[in-house]
TrEMBL record:
Name the UniProt record assigns to this protein: Peroxiredoxin
Classification via InterPro entries: KH_dom-like_a/b, OsmC/Ohr_fam, OsmC/Ohrsf
Organism: Candidatus Thiodiazotropha endoloripes
Domain of life of the organism encoding this protein: Bacteria
Pfam families with a match to the protein in the record: OsmC
């Protein structure tokens, strides 16, 4: 896997992934940015959310669950001192579908957190990561 980050101006950077996709990252105005994109630490949190959601959906589909929607709401706290690493991350899953099994949803989230989600496992080295979920019938 390769990636490249190019400085554009002030605190604005363009990240290019090896897959050919690009994203703008920027800092807040009080740090020289123009607020044109997500912050790099927000990218880490979004990456974890996407990684775990991908896993959960994949596991639920393999379990023949009729999932029609999934949202992961993330909330993180960072240390006060530099380096301001994540210290706590909470992921709240909202899984929507038809006749979803609570056992399958719970198992999918646990498998992602403990075995499959590389991003969660890496961030778990510095942060306490917790999860919960709700199931909504379509």
């Amino acid at each position: 896997m390769k990636a490249r980050v190019v400085w554009v101006e002030a605190a604005t950077m363009m990240g290019e992934a090896g897959s050919g996709h690009a994203i703008i990252m920027d800092g807040p105005p009080d740090h020289g940015g123009r607020n044109l994109g997500v912050r790099p630490m927000e990218m880490l949190l979004l990456g974890m959310g996407g990684c775990t959601e991908f896993d959960v959906l994949s596991i639920l589909r393999k379990s023949r669950q009729q999932v029609t929607g999934c949202v992961v709401e993330l909330e993180a706290k960072r240390s006060e001192a530099d380096p301001k690493v994540f210290t706590d991350i909470h992921a709240h899953f909202i899984v929507t579908g038809r006749e979803l099994s609570e056992k399958h949803v719970s198992r999918a989230i646990s498998l992602s957190a403990d075995k499959y989600c590389s991003a969660s496992i890496m961030l778990g080295a510095t942060a306490k990561i917790t999860h919960d979920y709700e199931i909504r019938d379509e």
